[in-house]
Model the fold of this input.
Amino acid sequence: MTAIPVEAAPFARSVDADLDARLKVFEQILLKWQPKMNLVAPSTLKSIRSRHIEDSLQVADIWPTARRWIDLGSGGGFPGIVTALRLRGESGALVHLVESDHRKCAFLREVSRETQAPVEVHWGRIEDVLPTLPDVDAISARALASLAILAEMTTERLENGAIGIFLKGQDVGSELTEMSIHSSLTIRLVASRTDPLARIVILGRNDLMSTGGVGQ
Done:
């Protein structure tokens, strides 16, 4: 695969007092549930805001026109809950959270109730749930699977006009060499605001990728 240039990190939109308060409620609920299940790595518990929340806020900033989302493997709520809270109050905003662990679904539902995040929680395997969901503007995932698997899961949706936005770590280069995509799709790489080695992968139809996204 030809080397893909890395674009500048997305512009950081401000966090107003209302959003900040709801993110703090989310963090408190996560800390309450963490002893019951592994929602985040224990080593990151003292830096939830910087390691997880700030990282996840980039997702909505990457494609700011997207209002309807599917978040795959939502687990601890990153980035799906954060995206939903960022979009709260926007007309038509809704994030479908897909999670196979019923306990984590219970956690996500509590967060949604307490923060009034515009989400719907779907319990089940991605391959079973994804075909049942309505059309959306974008699909996200964080620390879920390799790019090859993510592309395979979402190709049909992407070819129909959704944009894939996947948060990846420093191994993104090797993942890119292992994946193949349909000729109608394009990959863009964006630098992360929170980790100099991490990248945000944008995957979408050729005609859409040149008209939206970072900096739009």
User: Anything to note?
Assistant: The CA atoms of residues 186 and 209 lie 7 Å apart. Residues 17-209 form a domain with the Rossmann fold fold (CATH 3.40.50.150).
